[in-house]
């Protein structure tokens, strides 16, 4: 088993990403609660602030790492055929990478696909 | 790899789980559910930033009753996963490991998730 696939690394990634996600969620929740209305202008301008877009991108990256560990655990527990396991994990990896690129395009190229 | 014949029983419908097991199982299920809806949420983000009309379309989308039911399910899923996750993080630093406390926090987590969903119901109805 290579170092990168070791259980301890997965465990650490899952916990660290979780902590970032928790903090980010609380901050967003507080922001949302003190909002009395939201129009397109405010929404667009808020997400265009460099700090906001960077922390939001980091949130998605943390989220995708978190998903990777979590879904992989489920796959390892319930899918026993090596071939199907490989297929599903590859699809998972592909979808997580795609979503990362997608989010970057949305936040920085303001592309709507 | 050494394959010993070990008893494995994963029939979730027949296993009688203690409350801690239920909280944990739901943690997994809600995680999976949230993952499945991720692309839709990202699409929503994209649409909401694409222009005034895109932003309105997002808001209108959430006025449908069917969508609101799914939204409530996702809110519950997020809340449960969040609180159950916090419980696990605390257990990682050895807080709440004893059986009585673990049972108590399991109940707390399940109830908190449902409570958040009920708050969301209240928020959506107003």
What does this structure look like?
- The complex is a heterodimer of chains A (113) and B (126).
- By secondary structure, chain A is mostly helical.
- Chain A has four helices and no strands.
- The mean pLDDT of chain A is 93.
- With 126 residues, chain B is an all-alpha fold.
- In chain B, helix 3 runs antiparallel to helix 4.
- The longest helix of chain B has 31 residues, at 19-49.
- The chains are: A mainly alpha (113), B mainly alpha (126).
- The interface between A and B is medium-sized, with 27 and 24 residues.
Biggest pleated sheet of chain A = none
Low-pLDDT windows of residues of chain B: none
Number of strand segments of chain A: 0
Number of strands of chain B: 0
Q: Helices, strands, pairings?
A:
The complex is a heterodimer of chains A (about 110) and B (about 130).
Chain A (H helix, E strand, L loop, with lengths): L6 H27 L6 H9 L1 H29 L3 H27 L5
Helix pairs in contact in A: 1-3, 3-4
Chain B lengths: L18 H31 L2 H10 L3 H28 L6 H27 L1
Helix pairs in contact in B: 1-2, 1-3, 1-4, 3-4
């Amino acid at each position: 088993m290579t170092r990168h696939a070791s259980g301890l690394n997965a465990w650490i990634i899952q916990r660290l990403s979780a902590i970032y996600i928790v903090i980010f969620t609380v901050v967003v929740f507080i922001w949302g609660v003190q909002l009395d209305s939201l129009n397109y202008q405010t929404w667009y301008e808020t997400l265009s602030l460099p700090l906001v877009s960077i922390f939001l991108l980091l949130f998605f990256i943390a989220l995708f790492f978190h998903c990777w560990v979590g879904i992989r655990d489920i796959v390892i527990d319930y899918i026993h055929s090596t071939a199907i396991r490989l297929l599903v994990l590859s699809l998972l990896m592909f979808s997580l990478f795609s979503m990362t690129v997608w989010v970057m395009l949305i936040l920085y190229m303001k592309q709507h696909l | 790899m050494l394959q010993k014949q070990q008893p494995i029983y994963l029939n979730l419908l027949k296993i009688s789980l203690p409350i801690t097991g239920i909280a944990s199982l739901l943690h997994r299920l809600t995680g999976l559910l949230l993952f499945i809806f991720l692309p839709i949420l990202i699409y929503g983000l994209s649409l909401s930033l694409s222009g005034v009309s895109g932003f309105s379309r997002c808001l209108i989308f959430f006025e449908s009753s069917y969508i609101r039911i799914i939204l409530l399910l996702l809110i519950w899923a997020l809340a449960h996963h969040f609180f159950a996750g916090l419980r696990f993080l605390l257990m990682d630093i050895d807080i709440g490991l004893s059986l009585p406390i673990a049972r108590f926090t399991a109940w707390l987590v399940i109830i908190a998730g449902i409570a958040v969903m009920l708050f969301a119901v209240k928020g959506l109805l107003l």
